[in-house]
Amino acid sequence: MKSNKTLSSRGAAWWVLGLAALLPACGPETPPYEDLPLRDALRASPETLAALPEEARLDLALRLVDAQDDIENVDAIDETPARAGVPSAAALVRGADEAREAEGKDALVLGSIEPRGDDLFVVRQVALEELPGGGLDPASLEVPSDEAPSITTKALEDAALRGKAGAVLAALAQRAGADDRIRITGWPAGVIVVDRTVYVNASWLVAMSALEPNEAPSLAPAPALAVPKSPSLTPQSVGGNPYDLPISLDVCASDVRDTCACASSNQCSHEPADQTFADANAECAWVSADPLNAEALCVLALMSVHNVAQCVEKGSSLCVPVEDRDRALEFLLNIECRAHLDACLEDGKPASTESSGRGSCNGGSRGCDNSSCDNGSCNNSSCGSCNNGNCNTCSSSSCKTCRIGRGDLDSDPIPGAPWSDALMFLAPVAYMACRTRRRS
Prior knowledge:
Elements: H1 13-16, H2 38-43, H3 46-50, H4 54-69, E1 79-82, H5 89-102, E2 110-115, E3 121-125, H6 151-162, H7 164-176, E4 180-184, E5 191-194, E6 197-201, H8 202-208, H9 249-259, H10 280-289, H11 291-302, H12 306-315, H13 325-333, H14 335-347, H15 370-373, H16 376-379, H17 384-387, H18 419-424, H19 426-439
Parallel strand pairs: 2-5, 4-6
Antiparallel strand pairs: 1-3, 2-3, 5-6
Helix pairs in contact: 4-8, 6-8, 9-11, 10-11, 11-13, 12-14
């Protein structure tokens, strides 16, 4: 067997190939930016959208406006059922978006989460028939400590809040009787209303800022982009794309085993995910030799993605680096490392090493905010009783402080902007640069 070697810069190519069709040179075959689903842009980091040419952001803003206004019959608005083990707003939004994607629908730009019985919620499209004239004071947007805007995006977000995006938020808040507006990132939606809270996607704000007069100083121009040659369109053993990583190690391994079913006939023609193998037949023969090997290949591929590795390292520095297959197998034997990887894929943060209770909650509290969890008379020492009814069925007056917690969704993107984030959006940036040159 060939000796295992440290992955080269192609180590993350298992998911980069998902962008293969997006990275050709500036020819007519380059797919237009507007063909990318809105969910991809909304889940991208605000910094990524801020780096797009102004023309590209304007195109995106107009698509977002069209999507939120494209409701012929307000009484027939989309409702998507959503369930989650922990009914946090983030988990419910993601669950509903996965269902919408399976039905061929794009992300909701404006939506609300509403209860429909025990453990069942619906994510519902929101229609705004008319907007008030003015925007919002940027100071009215609550910014959690882990969601603070960067210098790159703050001016753009503030401009959006003072303009048309702010008018949309004001109308939604008035309609829902919302007391709070909270900045979030990474959600596959623009704005989501839950109880008396409006969650505002910073990437939506950055895109919508293109509709406002350019009063803020222009950002320093980015260096010229060298558009790389398109990678091979040949699939690999480990599939996936940067916008939609597998939700768990088990899901990834199952896909690998399905792909490597060709090993029985020695007719595997795809490109090996681990370039230390001579070809796909050799890689799939190794995968088939032991049930654990498919998981090891996934670990090797997933941990080559900077954001994933960074998230796992936050959980335990003993889990990194994963340089070769032998190290990947060691990783799998460490229960803590496996737990951190699954948690990072699912929630965008490593598994908690603290007790699950918060305040008076004694467990089951992960989807709640602090005020709800500290209120035993409402929750009966469990946030589940409060969240499942969306706070509307509690008899105690103290339920006024209870609400569905924000939760965390950032499996993609995880905070930070390493090289892999830049590569994710080379395609739209390169396309818009090319299109601008062709128009000039």
